Predict the 3D structure of the following.
Amino acid sequence: MEKRFTEEQIIQILKEQDAGERTADVCRRHGSSQPTFYKLRAKFGGMGVSDARKLKSLEAVNTRLKKLLAEQILDNTMLRDVNVKKW
């Protein structure tokens, strides 16, 4: 559900359920499962659209940084192995 909907749509879906609509009805109307809904509510519950956008942006940056760190660790390991074998 998270990949199919924009931040605005996710926040709107959560607000529909907060307004008193049954979770099963909201999920059926938007074509998602209840576990997915509850996962999104745990992640985006109580946020505004701008907060959700910031969260997605920070997650993308974090993913990129983790990838760079993994590559750097691999490079350091390879250089250490090469250095040990030379001497």
Notes: The chain has four helices and no strands. Residues 1 and 36 are 7 Å apart (CA to CA).
